[in-house]
Amino acid sequence: MNKPDQSSDHTANFVVEKQKEAELIHDVLLLLQNMISREETTIKLVLDSLYHIGSINLINQKFRSRTLKRSLKLISRTSKPVFRILAWRWFQKNGSQLITNWLQTQVAFKITQQPQAAKAELVLEDPETSQNYPPKPQYQLQEVRHLRSQVTLLTGILAGVVTIFGGSFVWLGYSLERSHLQTIVELQTQVKTLEASVNEP
């Protein structure tokens, strides 16, 4: 008669511990959100550094021409303010949750469970007490997929920014060349006019 009581006590303790863990993880999320809002300048500097490293590595891997690499690296440096704005908005929305998830995986020590602990975990899967978390491996797969999609998005944004700035530089160079040619033509016309006026008797 004593064993069922001990098992139910163990299960109740396990459920209480899991609820407490969920509350503490939520507190961690709120603290990280607070820290992110206070440390905006620091985080933007971190994102700048990561952008600089990432853009150089991406350009070095995708392109072979030295002149093209030089041009793209210059464009990536000038596009950094645009990236900073987009990256900061993305980090404000997703950063605290991603960091919280990662920290939770670091403190979820995997140990071989006793049969009773396994039963207690099955009881927790009851729809009334479960928090609808997917199983651990599936959850980690979803997180990896999410991170990959964010990397793809940032790569696309980088490619778009590089294209826009590249087009702007080409157009600017063309405009400067045309204005330079117009200035030369005007100067030549003025010189001819002056020569004609000097040669008149």
Write structural notes for this entry.
- The protein is rod-shaped.
- The chain is mostly helical.
- It is built from 6 helices and no strands.
Task: List its salient traits.
6 helices; rod-shaped
Q: Give the SSE string.
A: HHHHHH
Decide which structural class fits the backbone: mainly alpha
Reported for the largest beta sheet, the result is: none
> Given the C-alpha coordinates, what overall shape results?
rod-shaped
Helix content: over 70%
Poorly predicted runs are 122-130
What's the total count of β strands?
0
What Rg, in angstroms, do the CA atoms define? 31 Å
What is the percentage of strand-forming residues? under 5%
Secondary structure layout:
Blueprint (H helix, E strand, L loop, with lengths): L1 H37 L1 H23 L3 H13 L1 H28 L7 H10 L11 H64 L2
Gist?
The chain has helices at 2-38, 40-62, 66-78, 80-107, 115-124, 136-199. With 201 residues, it is mostly helical.
